[in-house]
Amino acid sequence: MDRVAVGVRVQGVAPAAPVELRFRDPAAAQALRVALDENDAALQGVAMQSLSGITGRREYAGSVAAWREYLDGGNPAPPARPSLAETIQKYWYWY
Questions:
Q1: In contact, 44 and 37? CB cutoff 8 Å
Q2: What is the rounded distance in angstroms from the CA atom of residue 89 to the CA atom of residue 58?
Q3: Where are the domains of the chain?
């Protein structure tokens, strides 16, 4: 898929949160479920940000699997936070 098409799709998902913060419509959250199934990290990331705004759930952060389970009616456990060593390794990758 070319970059223009990806940009258009991301922009189509991005405004979902600000509008829906006023209404908190569960149908909007379910509509974003389709974006989580795409094989595009940018689209998934924007969808997860929108879902956080719509649902008020921040604990699922960047976990596509947790969001999928939540939208399918489950109650997933929040993803484990990285350890101090993992955090250091992430920012100091030369070690």
A1: no
A2: 24
A3: 3-91
